[in-house]
Design a protein that fits this description.
mainly alpha
């Protein structure tokens, strides 16, 4: 409902769930997963916009914006009294909803990309992930992460790989922020849903690659690195 039911229905559904006794964490997880789905079903930017190329999903895309905001609303609910916690989750659901517009029917990773992967080896998958990021190939990057997760490999090497690009690339004000969102949501989500977060981060990382972060360039220049 939060993903595709519209703002009013989403707010009503969350209010009803809270009144019925569902925990703040359960409702927050649903909100986070709905925001994650906006990235996995995102058709990409329809036209180039400044440094964001056509087909990109980073920066102020609906899914990244929604994911970062949902993560913030969840934190507010965790540290607030009952009144503000309930209000935060209702507002968070309202904010997350209403952005389902022209979404893809099938989520990333797409089957066509999954079928290209012939290895189950963790080191090879990581190497191929980095290659897909540098090629700005969102579909293949997402599929490789999905395969890596299916094989039961540990997540830390993937987070380490993506952190490098979250720092080095200009993610239109969301690179480090969205990386941290995925890190937290992965840690707090049930096991069945964890890897969806990293698949989405793979898309965003591949999307933002190619324009270095000005702050990193300036730091290197000042440090002579």
């Amino acid at each position: 409902v939060i993903y595709s039911g519209g703002r009013e229905r989403a707010a009503d559904a969350v209010a009803a769930a809270l009144a019925e006794g569902f925990s703040y964490d359960s409702v927050g997880e649903a909100m986070s997963l709905a925001a994650n789905m906006l990235i996995l079903h995102d058709p990409g930017r329809r036209e180039a916009d400044g440094f964001k190329q056509k087909g990109s999903v980073h920066g102020d895309s609906p899914g990244v914006h929604a994911s970062d905001a949902a993560n913030a609303w969840r934190h507010i609910a965790q540290v607030s009294g009952q009144r503000n916690a309930v209000a935060s989750l209702i507002v968070g659901a309202y904010h997350t909803a209403g952005q389902h517009n022209g979404q893809l029917g099938d989520p990333y990773p797409l089957n066509a990309e999954r079928e290209k992967i012939r290895t189950e080896d963790s080191a090879t998958l990581l190497k191929d992930m980095e290659g897909a990021i540098k090629d700005r190939n969102q579909g293949l990057a997402a599929a490789l992460v999905g395969k890596y997760g299916e094989m039961g490999h540990v997540s830390k090497p993937v987070f380490d790989l993506f952190l490098k690009y979250a720092v080095s690339e200009d993610g239109a004000l969301h690179a480090e922020k969205y990386y941290r969102t995925v890190q937290e949501e992965f840690a707090s989500s049930r096991k069945a849903f964890q890897w969806r977060q990293l698949v989405a981060l793979a898309r965003v990382t591949a999307s933002e690659y190619g324009k270095s972060a000005p702050g990193v360039d300036e730091a290197k220049r000042l440090l002579g690195a």
